[in-house]
């Protein structure tokens, strides 16, 4: 049983098809990144998972259960910024939530500790930085000791140090057995924190894979003069389709171990070779190809 399974999940808002036939699977113990540009349908999908809105069609199971009584008992969520009382302390806010949820108050100090907020827990919420507010939000999602955590853009608006803190905390939670599904429009973030990625574009899941597999193949960058002669040698050797011309350089779609042979062919033809360099696959390029050049990706 996978902690999250959706089948052909769809949501229309009037004429807008916000989510189209999304079937995704989050496996136990992993950090799964739900990645897509702004407006791709991430929040709408997460809201359907949490029963905040009803799907137009398709199904959802969390921890093996279809929506219904007790569906979210072992699920923690941070979506659309939780509401806290500004004049109460962080701790007191959590006590209110714990009482409301029927959770033992002893959990409050435990979760404050987990998110690194214990030292400032007595301060009023209104005095918290954005990073501290996010951490308190995460603490509230942890009160029920969830097996599954669903986080919508958990690092949104945080400075680099706050983002790094949040990443560490999320990885620690996963290391302790919690499955995490988080959405993000930040490729670099997903690359750093996630085990697997689902890429959503214009409402459709266009890839579900590991970060490593998401990368396109690398290329061999070659610079040689005279340019036209170099192009003739390379296309004769490899065929037109494997020789891409970029700014008077060549990007060759070959395996890295062909570098020596290609260099010797060029030198043997009397050409001056000034660069032969393996370029690691570019994750951002792969992502842009998948999402059709979605514009809001950072
Ligand atoms: N309640 C609603 N009524 C009408 N349209 C909506 C509603 N909620 C979302 N949409 C539309 O559905 C599409 C997907 O929005 P959604 O918020 O799920 O995207 P997202 O990937 O989470 O983007 P963001 O990162 O900007 O939140 C957008 O075109 C949005 O305008």
Automatic annotation (TrEMBL):
<keyword id="KW-0547">Nucleotide-binding</keyword>
<comment type="similarity">
    <text>Belongs to the ABC transporter superfamily.</text>
</comment>
<keyword id="KW-0813">Transport</keyword>
<dbReference type="GO" id="GO:0005524">
    <property type="term" value="F:ATP binding"/>
</dbReference>
<feature type="domain" description="ABC transporter">
    <location>
        <begin position="4"/>
        <end position="227"/>
    </location>
</feature>
<dbReference type="InterPro" id="IPR017871">
    <property type="entry name" value="ABC_transporter-like_CS"/>
</dbReference>
<protein>
    <submittedName>
        <fullName>ABC transporter ATP-binding protein</fullName>
    </submittedName>
</protein>
<dbReference type="InterPro" id="IPR003593">
    <property type="entry name" value="AAA+_ATPase"/>
</dbReference>
<dbReference type="InterPro" id="IPR027417">
    <property type="entry name" value="P-loop_NTPase"/>
</dbReference>
<dbReference type="Pfam" id="PF00005">
    <property type="entry name" value="ABC_tran"/>
</dbReference>
<dbReference type="GO" id="GO:0016887">
    <property type="term" value="F:ATP hydrolysis activity"/>
</dbReference>
<dbReference type="InterPro" id="IPR003439">
    <property type="entry name" value="ABC_transporter-like_ATP-bd"/>
</dbReference>
<keyword id="KW-0067">ATP-binding</keyword>
């Amino acid at each position: 049983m996978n902690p999250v399974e959706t089948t052909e999940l769809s949501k229309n808002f009037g004429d807008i098809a916000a989510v189209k036939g999304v079937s995704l699977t989050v496996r136990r113990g992993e950090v799964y990144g739900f990645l897509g540009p702004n407006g791709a349908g991430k929040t709408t999908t997460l809201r359907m998972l949490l029963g905040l809105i009803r799907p137009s069609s398709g199904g959802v199971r969390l921890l093996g259960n279809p929506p219904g009584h007790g569906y979210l008992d072992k699920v923690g969520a941070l979506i659309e910024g939780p509401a806290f009382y500004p004049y109460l302390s962080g701790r007191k806010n959590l006590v209110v939530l714990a009482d409301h949820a029927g959770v033992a108050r002893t959990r409050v100090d435990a979760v404050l500790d987990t998110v690194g907020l214990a030292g400032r827990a007595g301060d009023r919420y209104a005095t918290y930085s954005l990073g501290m507010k996010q951490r308190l939000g995460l603490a509230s999602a942890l009160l029920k000791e969830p097996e599954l955590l669903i986080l919508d853009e958990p690092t949104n608006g945080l400075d680099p140090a706050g983002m790094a803190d949040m990443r560490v905390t999320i990885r620690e939670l996963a290391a302790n057995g919690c499955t995490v599904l988080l959405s993000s429009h930040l490729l670099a973030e997903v690359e750093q924190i996630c085990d697997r990625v689902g890429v959503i574009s214009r409402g459709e899941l266009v890839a579900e894979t590991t970060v490593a597999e998401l990368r396109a193949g690398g290329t061999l960058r070659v610079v040689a003069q005279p340019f036209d002669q170099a192009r003739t040698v390379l296309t004769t050797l490899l065929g037109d389709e494997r020789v891409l011309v970029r700014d008077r350089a060549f990007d060759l779609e070959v395996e890295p171990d062909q570098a020596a042979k290609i260099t010797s062919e060029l030198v043997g033809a009397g050409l001056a070779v000034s660069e032969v360099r393996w370029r690691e696959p570019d994750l951002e390029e792969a992502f842009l190809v998948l999402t059709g050049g979605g514009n809001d990706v950072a």
